[in-house]
Amino acid sequence: MRYNGILMKRHACLFVVLNLVHVLLWWNMGWAQTRQKESEQTAQYLTTLLNVGRLIVERHQPLINDHQKGDKGFTPESFEQHAVDEFFRQTSIDLRHPPAHLPDLAKELLPILLESSKHVVADAQLVINQRGIGYKNFIPATFGSQTARKFSNRSQVKMKQTTLNPRNLKNTPDVYEEEVLKRLASQSTSNGPVAEWVAGGKTLRVLTPIYYSQDCLVCHGSPQGILDISGYPREGAREGDLAGAISIQIPASTP
Question: pTM, whole model, 2 decimals?
């Protein structure tokens, strides 16, 4: 009888331990899934903010390229105001007063990206305000590439603009990006972001495609091979063709 009592106690203890292990595993899985979802949301917000910056530069292109005007008034502070307003219009999120539901990772990284954007505009002030020169080569693509590099240097997240036929070799795709870009280029319709957890779930990779608009074809359209205003051969692209993608890598261990 005594032996049976001891055995029953052991079984009871084992049952409790197994239940605790089950609960802990369930909690860890739920926590990991929440972190993954927050990382994916953050990647979306980062992509949106970079695209917003590109849009602001595009809207101000006639002003930037005005060869008769000196001080254009397109300052880092002016850019920031336009970017914050446009980001709010697209997402209903005020970057100056982030809502409680915004992931902590996004709260950390969005200000870094905005500040990186402002630094790019600040660095270009001499070029932007130069008289006597029309085309300044301060265009959405240039802005985006420089901003992505500054942001990557200031955070644990890697961001870049990439394309299958880069004019800037710094935008050359890696093996993963090339595979996704080729897949997107082979599809006849526009697509949304491609998001995958790779390396056994250790890294989130997100590629958001960029498609040529009518304005892009001034430099990237037909006739193919003819030099554009910046001195590069035109690609012969058509409106709606895949131009490239914004690529983001977020490690799972990002605090």
Answer: 0.84
